[in-house]
Design goal:
alpha/beta; 165 residues; globular; Rossmann fold
């Protein structure tokens, strides 16, 4: 891969309402133009969780009109060619995924679903913050990889290893 290449990534979870939305916004911001991230769900909820939006706004992460959408949008002709696909929930990781354009590298980066949290508003927000910081750390690890100098097998191994951190 050349030094000037930009990469595309898709974050997938079941409902595309919290984790994958936060990951998309984080990679688009932290990637410094080297990455274009997207998110989608196998069974999209149709709306973005308001606490996910609050966490992103509080962290000063720009929001580019986030919306909950189906992963089918990324399997159609004319969809962006993907370099990476990350599942961020266990349910989506176990589902049969569409065939993605570009034969992307895949990895499972499971994160507990904050949208299922119960308790006080502060306790629920804490769960969203926990998910946000796990995703942020993993994205920072991805961005620290010498992607251009790693062979495909090594890169695939390193990307999958990030999901265990």
């Amino acid at each position: 891969m050349s030094d000037t290449r930009n990469f595309t990534a898709l974050f997938v979870c079941t409902h595309n309402s919290a984790r994958s939305i936060m990951a998309e916004a984080l990679l688009n911001t932290l990637g410094g133009g080297r990455f274009r991230a997207y998110s989608a769900g196998s069974m999209p909820k149709g709306e973005v969780h308001p606490v996910a939006l609050k966490i992103l706004r509080d962290a000063l992460i720009p929001l580019d009109n986030p919306r909950s959408k189906s992963w089918e949008e990324f399997a159609r002709p004319g969809a962006p060619v993907l370099d990476f696909v990350f599942t961020v929930c266990d349910r989506a990781a176990g589902e049969v995924c569409p065939l993605w354009p570009g034969q992307p590298m895949t990895a499972h980066w499971g994160v507990e679903d904050p949208a299922e949290a119960t308790g006080t508003p502060a306790q629920i927000e804490r769960k969203f913050l926990d998910a946000f910081f796990v995703l942020k750390r993993r994205i920072e690890l991805l961005l620290s990889l010498p992607i251009e100098s790693l062979d495909e097998v090594s890169l695939q191994s390193r990307v999958r290893e990030i999901g265990r951190k």
